[in-house]
Design brief:
The chain is mainly β. It has helices at 23-30, 55-58, 259-263; strands at 4-7, 10-13, 44-47, 63-64, 68-72, 77-82, 85-88, 92-97, 100-104, 119-121, 137-138, 143-144, 146-155, 158-166, 184-192, 200-201, 206-207, 220-226, 232-237, 252-257, 271-276, 279-283, 298-306, 309-316, 321-327, 338-342, 349-354, 364-371, 377-385. This is DUF4185 domain-containing protein.
Length: 387
Amino acid sequence: MTHPSRISGHLRPNRRSVLKAGLGMTLAGAGLALGAAPALAAQRGTPLCDQPGDSASRQGLGSGDLCIPYHREHDNTWGYVFGDAWTGIHQTGDYIGSPVMLAQDTFDSSGAAPISFTWALPTGGQAGKLFDYTSRADNGYGFEISRIPNDCIEFGGRTYLQYTSVYTWGVEGDPPWEDGHDGSLMSGVAYSDDYGVTWTDYDYHWDGDHRGVNQSMYGMWSFAGIDPDGWLYIFSKRWNGTHRNSADGGAVQLFRIQPDDFRAGNFGAQQNWAYVDGSWQWTTSETPPSVILSGNNTGEFSVKRIGATYCMSYFDVVLGAIVTRTAPRPDAPWSMPVPQITALEVPNLYGGYIHPGSASATALTLMVSQWSGRDYYGVRQFDGINP
C-alpha cells in the first residue's frame, strides 16, 4: 500500500496509501453489516475502468479515480469527472493529470446495464486534463501537486467544477507533512461555457493550509442542487483527501446562494445555516455557518437531491466504509449513518459519489473508488443502495 507511482519523473505515491490496513475488520469487530441492496440491482461493484479494452480505455483513460457524476442538462447526457488519471491500466502509460472528464449518452438507472463512456472531454477525442496548470509547480498561487475535483454541476448553460489544490499527500517525494495539517494549497471553482471544453477559474480562491488557512471548512464542496425554493444549496467540509487528517472531526457545514449570484462569482451573497442565539437560522455571509454534522473523520462526500429527498454519502475513514444519510430538506435533521459498502467487500475503498440520475431516493447509484497498488486503480458502480 506504499508503492509509489510516477508523474513526469517525480515520485507520486498514491494518496490512498495512507489508509489503515484492515479498516474493514473494525466493522466486523463492531458487528456492523453491509447495507442491503434490492434483489433487482444488477451492478454490485462493477469496474468502470482499469480493465483492458473497457469503455474508459477506448476514450483514452486507462485508470483513474473518483468518477464524480453530474447531469449535462443542456443535452440530457451525463458527465463523469475523474481525479488523477493515466492512459494505461494499473497507473501505467502517460500521466494525464487531474481533473479528467468522460461522458455518456444515456444512463440506465435500473442497473441492468453498467455505465459505458461514450466520449471524452475536453476535445471529444482522447481524454485530457481539463485545467491549464502544471503539476508539481508554482502556477502563481504556490507549489501544487494536483487539482482534485470534489463536485460538478451544470445549470443555466454553464458548468461549474469545485476543486482542491493539493500541496502535499504527505508521503515520499512530496513536501513534508505536518500532523494536524490538511496538506491543501487552496480551493477554487472553475466554470465552462462550452460544456467542458475550456475552463476559467473564478478570481476568488479559498486559501488552504499552505496559504495560511489550515482546516478551512471550504476545502471540499458538494453541490446538492437547486431546490424548488430557487436556492443553490452547497455543503462543504475540510479537505481530507489524504484520509489521514488527524485534526478532522468529520465536520460538515451548509450554505446557499442564488444561482445568478453564483454565476457572477458574487460568493459574498451566500447565506449561511448557523446556530445563533439559541436557534438555527439562515444568516448573512458575515455570520459563518455552524457545523451540522460531525463524528468520524470523513473523506470524500456527496449530497444530492433525489426526488424530494436529500441524500448524503461519504467515506467514513474510521469505519472504512461508505455510509449514507437522508433528510427531507438540506437544513433539516439528518438520519443516522448507515454503512453500505465496507472494506470487507471492497478493500482500500474511498469516495462514494451519488449519481444524480439515481432511480430513486431508496435506490441510489454510488461511484466507489478503489486503489490496490498496481493491481487496481479505478471506480466501481453500485446500484440499488437504500439509505
